Amino acid sequence: MRRPASMSLRFALLALLSARPMTGFDLMREFDSSVGYLWTAPHTQIYPELRKLEKVGLVAGEDKPRGARGTKREYQITAEGETELRSILSEVLQPRFERDPHRLRAAYMEWATRDAARAQLLAHLEFYVAAETLYKEEYELIVNEQIPLLKERLARTAPERRQGVVAFKAFAYTGMIERARAEAQWAEEGLRLLDSLPAEVFEPSDRPVAKR
Amino acid sequence: MRRPASMSLRFALLALLSARPMTGFDLMREFDSSVGYLWTAPHTQIYPELRKLEKVGLVAGEDKPRGARGTKREYQITAEGETELRSILSEVLQPRFERDPHRLRAAYMEWATRDAARAQLLAHLEFYVAAETLYKEEYELIVNEQIPLLKERLARTAPERRQGVVAFKAFAYTGMIERARAEAQWAEEGLRLLDSLPAEVFEPSDRPVAKR
DNA sequence: CGAGCCATGTAAACAGTTACATGATTCT
DNA sequence: AGAATCATGTAACTGTTTACATGGCTCG
Q: Pick from A75, A82, B60, B136: CA 20 to 30 A from residue B35's CA?
């Protein structure tokens, strides 16, 4: 009866299958695109999880022919699976303090050279500037209903509910955009800090030869 | 020779031990306070990792008496350990797309009732408003040099380098503060969205008795 | 003497990553 | 015929969480 604290993969698979039936491979490709920014998993995690979901009746698998000799297994969400989706969302997932390796490293930058610290922050800045652009593009695709899976989902959704389906996906992305912007800003702040500090606060770039 | 992609626990332990020698228990308590917002680990991870670090010479352990019969093992960072710290920070840790269970769930809120969605976002808002306050308090403690471990660290640091030691820790916290603010803002945006959507977009609060 | 803190451990389970592997189909 | 794509798997390992466990020290 107990639901594990972390079952995001399960949730993600059920959520995707609620749009249309898919094979493990299809799901893998979905994780490589749009949804992949929210959650992702390698195929080595997807296939076993699908078998588990089938065993407990949340999805139904069916072998489909593929070409002459080939087959593939297509999964569709069951009524129990949809109930599970509702049930997961009916419980609050408590936010918790997140570990952040980048923030941790930043806190001890006195052990880095100025150049290394700068390189780290530039990588951070570059990554999140690009991420922000990416997320904004996704956002536009969502609100313009230009994502294939979203279109299929909407086609299977009662007209009066479509508005919400789009709005929640767009909402998730505004969070990603805001976060990326905050990270980029932080990196810029760090770069200014680096420039403002005197050379003596850093580990020397060329360490003395004999350090004993 | 290869360094694992994720060695934040190792980094955190070395960074803490660079302030002063500590036992596993001391480190555990540190993770329960200040530094714990940047990184944390349970004792079941700390003790084995310390033994590993000792085996490879990055820390040196020494048994200390405790009362009459008791002992405890105190670890101090070695020269090799400090080199390791510098070495880790000399390489850029590439930022990557983070999975976020909360954003994932938000994207599929059409499967929730309005009340459940609101409860989720209120929990998010409450958590991050509190976190922001907490982080700001920590920030003040840092810049005013009121954190015991930081004071000990500064006492062992050459005067001309102290400025950086404080500034980097403060910098890490500005990132935490900005992020918490962004999350709180996002939750508020979500609450406004919920209020703006018509009732039909949500799963019914009281499901029909006979769902077939 | 008991509560609460100090101190350290094992073991099982789970989530996620990486490496290795296989074979069919489709397109050029 | 070979390359790219479709499709699915096993196995080993790392990092993290959770449960269970033990015992000494200090203070009231």
A: B60
Cβ burial of B55 (10 Å; 0-12, 13-18, 19+) is exposed
Tokens at residue A21, please? 């039936």
Contact B106 A168 (CB under 8 A): yes
CA distance B17 to chain A (A): 12
Long-range contacts, stretch B180-184, CB < 8 angstroms, 24+ apart: B180/B128, B180/B129, B180/B131, B180/B132, B180/B135, B181/A182, B181/B128, B181/B132, B182/A178, B182/A179, B182/A181, B182/A182, B183/A95, B183/A175, B183/A179, B183/B124, B183/B128, B183/B131, B184/B124, B184/B125, B184/B128, B184/B129, B184/B132
Facing residue for A161 by CB, picked from B164, B176, B200: B200
Q: Is the pLDDT of residue B5 over 90?
A: no
Using CB atoms, which residue from A86, A176, A189 is nearest to B203?
A86
pLDDT digits over A43-98, tens only? 999 999 999 999 999 999 999 999 888 899 999 999 999 999 999 999 999 999 99
C-alpha span between B40 and B46 (Å, rounded): 10
| Cβ atoms < 10 Å from Cβ of B54 | 16
The protein footprint on chain C, as nucleotides within 7 A of a CB, is 6-12, 14-20, 23-26
* DSSP SS3 for B60: strand
pLDDT band at B212 (very low <50, low <70, confident <90, very high): very low
> Which bases in strand D are touched by protein, i.e. have an atom under 7 Å from a CB?
6-12, 14-20, 23-26
Contact B157, B82 (CB under 8 A): no
Pairwise CA distance, residues A17 & A22, whole Å: 6
